Amino acid sequence: MRSYYAVLAGFGVLTASVILAQADLLATLLTSGFSWLLVVVIAARAVLAGVQGAVVGRFAARTKSLLRKRILSAETDRAGEAATLATKGVDAADPYLTGYLPALVTAVVVPVAVIVRLFTADLASALIVTATVPLIPVFAILVGAHTKAKTARQWRLLAKLGGHFLDVVRGLTTLKVFGRAEAQARTVRAMADAHVDATMRTLRVAFLSALVLELLATLSVALVAVPIGFRLLEGGMTAHTALLILILAPEAYLPLRAAGAKFHAGAEGLAAIRETEALAPAMVTRPGIRRRRGVPGVVLDNVTVHYGDTPVLSGLDLRIEPGEHVALMGPSGSGKSTLLALLLGFVEPTHGRVLIDGVDLRELDLAAWRAEIAWVPQRPTLFTGSVTHNIGFGRPAGDAARAAALDDVVTALPEIGEVGTGLSSGQRQRIGIARAWARTDAGLLLLDEPTARLDAGTEATVLAATRRLLEGRTAILVAHRPAMAALADRVIEVKTLEHV
Fold it and tell me: For a surface tag, which of 159, 229, 243, 327 has the fewest beta carbons within 10 Å of its beta carbon?
């Protein structure tokens, strides 16, 4: 953005220079005669506007592409909000980048240049313009403070609506089975109505503020024009000077009016960009240590994790030897999944350290470290395509499918839907197991209750695949059922903080 502001400032200075030259030549045309230089200046102003539009458009396209990449690569469970921001949200940033910011920079440079020129032409007119020009940004700031809150609320409601709607669509089958579809439809309609109301309130403020700014600018120009008319009639001012001031005075207010007119569209875009920053903050790249591949040892040294003000883990000490299999058992909310998130690098400890073979995880190359982890979550994310593609993501997956007892599924279902349409819960879970099998170079295995929602027969199949998967790897298993815990060398009971 700093380079973008510098480019806009350069265009602003060139625009101000062309405006001053054009005003002088127009006054000369009306009092003395035609000059071909005026044609050159007008053509230069048109070319300058076209070049600025092209540069601004290219920057906006690049910025929107970067924002979308940031959203799509964000590690977030707010899928609905991410989808809304990646589509409508990023597009809403366009008026801010291509309209408001260029107008804002021009509104800073051009009025200053015009006022300086007016001081060399007529002191009284220059003082009037100097006194009235600040009124427009003052009123714009007052209106903008009110608009900012309304626009932020509008975007929060839109993101909430998008997220809830996506969840409803994904769970529509279950909602129909339990007779809750109509209730959720009413909820979506109510949220949509709230967003419409917020949008209309924002638009009303936009229209009223535009009226206020236009009225201020018109009255300010009149304060300059009326005295000049009387002085011209009395012979106290030359025609060239009078025309120069009358041409320049509106130019002092025009950029401010343009910035004010684009403020509300810009405020919407800025709110969308801030929502993107909140959802997917910019990652600060840092050089990390690449450990030698192999089966790792893991140590949690006095680890405490807070989500906001809420403690999830407190003073946790744990040592897991290379190749050891550890099962974590305990009630929901005791921090078992948070411990896995720590090892995946999704969460950083508030206090304490996570050591991998004696090296702080924060010092490791995170991408290289994650490449050494096979993770089986509670609900594996599935994509539209073949079962083998969902397992190997383009790499050979036949052996992994056979290891997870998925041969019959590969044959029977050549194509599956985005949320695993056509698959049972056990088959989805076995795809997660097969993905871990496909990670042949992974030395650490993390399993987050892979059998929590399976029947006894399916659980036995998944456990058999998991038992083979554990061989030769360090493993941490989050388990609720004794059958899963039986696969571990050691069982650790994790308690909620209120029971500690």
Answer: 229
Helix (H) or strand (E) holding 77: none
User: Domain ranges in the chain?
Assistant: 2-279, 298-499
Residue 219's contacts (CB-CB under 8 Å, 6 or more residues apart) are: 132
Instruction: Assess whether the region 2-279 and the region 298-499 belong to the same CATH fold.
Output: no
- Label residues 461-498 b or e (16+ Cβ within 10 Å = b): bbbebbeebbeebbbbbbbeeeebbebbeeebebeeee
Residues 169-204 have pLDDT tens digits of 666 777 777 777 777 778 778 877 777 777 777 666
**How far apart (Å, rounded) are the C-alpha atoms in residues 15 and 49?**
8
Residues sharing a CB contact under 8 Å with residue 192, sequence separation 6 or more, in sequence order: 161
pLDDT digits (tens, 9 = 90+) for 86-132: 777 777 788 888 888 888 888 888 888 888 888 888 888 888 888 88
Q: For the whole model, what pTM was predicted?
A: 0.51
Residues 6+ apart with CB under 8 A from 322: 294, 295, 296, 297, 357, 474
Q: Taking a C-beta distance cutoff of 8 angstroms, is the pair 464, 437 a contact?
A: no
Distance (Å, rounded) from C-alpha 42 to C-alpha 40?
A: 6
3-class state of residue 470 by DSSP = helix
Q: φ and ψ at 446, to 5 degrees?
A: -120, 120
Main-chain dihedrals φ then ψ at residue 478, nearest 5 degrees: -90, 120
Fold annotation for 2-279: ABC transporter transmembrane region fold (1.20.1560)
Which residue, chain included where needed, has tokens 């799509």? 72
**CATH dotted code for 298-499:** 3.40.50.300
Backbone torsion region of residue 460, taken as left when φ is above 0, otherwise alpha when ψ lies between -120 and 50, otherwise beta: alpha
